[in-house]
Design brief:
The chain has twelve helices and 14 strands. The protein is of the alpha/beta class and about 375 residues long. The strands form two sheets. It has an eight-stranded mixed beta sheet with strand order 13-12-11-7-10-9-8-14. A six-stranded parallel beta sheet has the order 3-2-1-4-5-6, sandwiched between helices. It is globular, with a radius of gyration of 20 Å.
C-alpha cells in the first residue's frame, strides 16, 4: 500500500518534508494545510498535492495516512492531537513541544489512537552518527568520561524579525538551545545515555527584540558518571559547523556536522582505516551554521522511511515520542538551572516554573 503523507504548516521547513517524502519508497505527498491560504497553495503547486485551509477537511482526506507537523514549535500539540484522533500517524518536527505537559498530551493521544508517533531528529540517521553509536555499543571507548556538544551558529537580527513567533517563549519555547541546538542535545543523550545533573548559564548578548537566549552553556553529569559540556549560540559570527566529541579511557572520536574528523582507539579494528579514509573526503557543507535554509533533506528522508517501516510492520520507530520528550526535558532543566543558579537533577518531576516564560519577557543577563 502506498502511504499518503500530508503536511501541516507550510513555512520554511515544509519544503524539506516534501522533498524527503519524495524519496520514501511507496509513499507520496497527497495534501498540505496552512491557515494562510497562499502558503498552502504555494507548496501544493510546487509539489503537486492538494491544498487545504480547513484542518478538519484536511484530516478527512481518505488518501491521507501520515501527517507531518511543521508549525511553530509551541503550536505542535493541537494539530498533532487532532491528527491522532483522526486516526493518522504523526511525525512532529523538533521539538516535540515546548513543555513536558504538551509533549505528554501528544504522546497520550497517539497511544490512545494506536497510531505511530515520531519526533524529527534526522541527525541520528547520518552514517557518522550511526558509526559513533555502534562504537559506543561495542564499548570501544572503554569507560565514557566526557561527552560534549558545541553549536556555535550565527543568526542575523533579520532572521528573528522575519516571524513574530521567532525568539518568543510562547511559540519558539526558547532560543539557541530549544530551536537550533536541540539536534545536538538529542544526539548527545542518545550517545552518552541519560543526563542526571545540570548546571548552566544563559544570556542574550547579540540580538534585540527577542525574549530568549542567544548564548547558553551547561555542564552535564551523565548517569554513567561521565561529564560533559553543552554550548549553544546564535551569536557567533560567521557560524561554524556543529560538533560532537565523545571521549573514554580507551578511545576518542569527534564528529563535525556529518563528518568524523577524529577516530582514535587503543585497540585498532580492521574497519578503522576505512573510517579514516572517509574522514579525508569531508562531505559536510555549511549545515545551518549561518543560513537556516542551508540544510539537506536526506536525514528527513531516512527518518520518514523508518517511520513508514514501523507503520507497515507494527513496530516502534527509532525516534518515538518519548525520545523526543527527552531532549525537551534536558533543555528545560538547563533553563531552570540557569535561572535559579543551582544544580538541577533529572528527571524533572514537572515542567519548571520559569519566570522568564511566565512573564513573556527576557530576564536574561545582557552585556553591559
Amino acid at each position: 500500500m502506498t502511504l499518503g503523507f500530508g503536511i501541516i504548516g507550510c513555512g520554511l521547513i515544509s519544503k524539506f518534508h516534501a522533498r524527503a517524502i519524495r524519496e520514501v519508497p511507496d509513499a507520496r505527498l497527497v495534501a498540505c494545510y496552512d491557515v494562510v491560504k497562499e502558503s498552502a497553495e504555494r507548496l501544493a503547486s510546487e509539489f503537486g498535492c492538494k491544498a487545504y485551509q480547513d484542518l478538519d477537511a484536511f484530516l478527512a482526506d481518505p488518501d491521507l495516512h501520515v501527517v507531518t507537523v511543521a508549525t511553530p514549535s509551541g503550536a505542535h500539540m493541537e494539530p498533532a492531537v487532532a491528527a491522532a484522533r483522526a486516526g493518522k500517524h504523526v511525525i512532529v518536527e523538533k521539538p516535540l513541544e515546548i513543555t513536558l505537559e504538551r509533549c505528554d498530551a501528544i504522546i497520550r493521544a497517539c497511544e490512545e489512537a494506536k497510531v505511530v508517533l515520531s519526533t524529527i531528529f534526522p541527525s541520528r540517521f547520518h552514517d557518522s552518527s550511526q558509526l559513533l553509536k555502534r562504537a559506543i555499543d561495542q564499548q570501544r571507548f572503554g569507560r565514557l568520561t566526557l561527552g560534549d556538544a558545541y553549536v556555535k551558529w550565527w543568526r542575523t537580527q533579520q532572521y528573528y524579525d522575519s516571524g513574530a513567533w521567532r525568539g518568543t517563549w510562547q511559540l519558539d519555547g526558547g532560543g539557541a538551545l530549544m530551536n537550533q541546538a536541540i539536534h545536538s542535545v538529542d544526539l548527545l543523550a542518545w550517545l552518552m545515555g541519560p543526563v542526571s545533573e545540570i548546571q548552566a548559564a544563559t544570556a542574550l548578548l547579540a540580538h534585540e527584540r527577542i525574549e530568549v537566549e542567544d548564548v547558553a552553556v551547561a555542564v552535564l553529569r551523565f548517569k554513567n558518571g561521565a561529564l560533559g559540556v553543552l554550548e549553544a549560540t546564535t551569536a557567533a559570527y560567521p557560524g561554524y559547523l556543529k560538533r560532537i566529541e565523545i571521549h573514554g579511557n580507551r578511545g576518542s572520536a569527534v564528529m563535525e556536522e556529518e563528518d568524523i574528523i577524529k577516530w582514535d582507539f587503543a585497540e585498532e579494528h580492521p574497519d578503522d582505516q576505512i573510517v579514516r579514509e572517509k574522514m579525508a573526503a569531508r562531505v559536510s557543507g555549511g549545515g545551518g551554521a549561518s543560513d537556516p535554509a542551508a540544510i539537506g533533506h536526506h536525514g528527513h528522508a531516512r527518518q520518514f522511511t523508518d517511520v513508514a517501516k514501523a507503520i507497515r510492520e507494527g513496530t516502534r520507530p527509532l525516534i518515538d515520542g518519548y525520545e523526543g520528550r527527552r531532549s525537551v526535558e534536558i533543555i528545560l532543566a538547563v533553563y531552570k538551572a540557569a535561572e535559579e543558579g543551582r544544580v538541577v537533577t533529572l528527571p524533572l518531576e514537572k515542567d519548571p516554573d520559569l519566570q522568564a516564560r511566565k512573564v513573556g519577557v527576557c530576564n536574561l543577563r545582557r552585556a553591559s
